[in-house]
Automatic annotation (TrEMBL):
Name by which UniProt lists this protein: Uncharacterized protein
Superkingdom to which the source organism belongs: Eukaryota
Region of interest called Disordered, as start-end residue ranges on this chain: 123-144
Compositional bias segments (type: Basic and acidic residues): 133-144
Amino acid sequence: MLQFFQRLIGRPPRSQLPPFDFARNRFHAKKTWPPNLRELTDKQNFRFERKFKRRLRLKSIRPQWQKWTKIVQWSMISFVVVYGVLFHDYAKDPMNPRPGEQPFKGLREWMWGLWGGFWTHTTSPEGTLGGAEGREERKGAKTR
């Protein structure tokens, strides 16, 4: 059970192997790593930097992470904008430069009027007739 929680947390189990001994390695590297940049010429240094910057850039591309990061960021931005425009009480906000004033009052009234009208049943001709027919009917009714 402990291994299950360690796997969930992301901690790898402790290895039972002895630590690696580089002195007894049978397969020695062809080049020393990291290279001593002071021993390289300017041209070699430039090639080295360009090659490893490119490799680092390719390694750092994680499309799944970038996709979800973008989704979360835009969701948070949308939430803050909608909350700030439709729900926040600016009249009682101590940071409001004009106390008692609602900057989005007209937009709020229009939005809540649409939302409130969406759930109610109207018997007026404007509410029951939509589209071009409704406009023609209303025009005819007004001109008579």
